[in-house]
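Wed. Picked up where I left off yesterday with 3-oxoacyl-[acyl-carrier protein] reductase. The coffee machine is broken again, so keeping this brief.
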Amino acid sequence: MGKEMKPIGEMTVLITGASRGIGAAIAERFASVRMNVIIHYMNSHEAANEVARRCLEHGARVLTVSADLRDKEQILRMKEKLQSHGMEPDILVNNAGVSHYGLLSDVTEAEWDSLMSINLKGMFLCTQAFMDRMISQRFGRIINVSSVWGLSGASCEVLYSTSKGGVNAFTKALAKELAPSGVTVNAVAPGAVDTSMLEHLASDEIRMLEDEIPAGRLAHPDEISSLVYFLALPESGYITGQVISPNGGWVT
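Structure written out below (tokens, as returned):
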């Protein structure tokens, strides 16, 4: 921990893919302590602005930024914009991601490349772009949003499971690399969460899913955001290299 540690409310957090679902909940959780919040989105301009509006109601300073995380040049332009606003992140939440449902035999090479570019390459490029400042100030938090499927795998979700398994390995390795610099790296691997990522499931499939979960229900996005917030706290500095899965007892 740095010698001149800023209070949590004076820190800046960047959440990728924050226009909806878990990302939006994370943005609002940090805004509730009046942290400087950067809401990243790709195309969902109106949705991102709505999340920003809710964050502003907490009295937080808020900035929205758009970038295709598959493109390094766009990430570097995003970084320049944040620097010009004096909002370089102390905390990076790599949340942006896409899912894929279907048999592996039906997966095209283009689908593989697209999903891996968003779920893995985007995380890599964002982390690389923003970790230098964390290292120089000897404080930083990198929190990667993974999935329970990255731990256990799922039939008909081989693509998604593979990408999230990569997120977990990235997390564990980078944590060892950055620990001497006071920067922690952890992953949150949620189980089934009540967001649009499950919209491909019919209502009876949702009920069957809930029956499989010992807690008997889906998670609420706020239950995931509270864990992300905890990992970002200065007093969580001894927690690093961990993949924590809030899943209602589904996978243990």
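Quick read: The longest strand covers residues 36-41.
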